[in-house]
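Retry 2 of 3 after timeout on previous attempt. Resubmitting structure tokens to design endpoint.
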């Protein structure tokens, strides 16, 4: 059994919407259960200077032992593609 398999069991991923965004923490409401989660952006989001604002749809990774804390691992692109005629 490799280390990666053990780590994957300790985390759950959910989709949600950001309700409050401050400088370094985000409050996210998970869709399935209306649970509030206090999140931080993941390293890739910080490294690539991806901004997460209130109202954005995001993917959140939470631990199985404490579901009140998590991290945002993906920000979904909310822009609609415009057709050019």
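Retry 2 succeeded. Sequence:
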């Amino acid at each position: 059994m490799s280390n990666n398999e053990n780590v994957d069991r300790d985390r759950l991923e959910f989709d949600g919407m950001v309700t409050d965004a401050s400088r370094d923490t985000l409050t996210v409401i998970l869709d399935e259960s209306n649970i509030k989660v206090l999140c931080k952006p993941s390293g890739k989001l910080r490294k690539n200077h991806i901004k997460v604002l209130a109202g954005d749809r995001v993917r959140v990774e939470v631990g199985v032992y404490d579901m009140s804390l998590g991290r945002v691992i993906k920000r979904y692109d909310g822009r609609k593609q415009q057709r050019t005629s």
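Attempt log closed. Helices lie at 3-9, 43-47.
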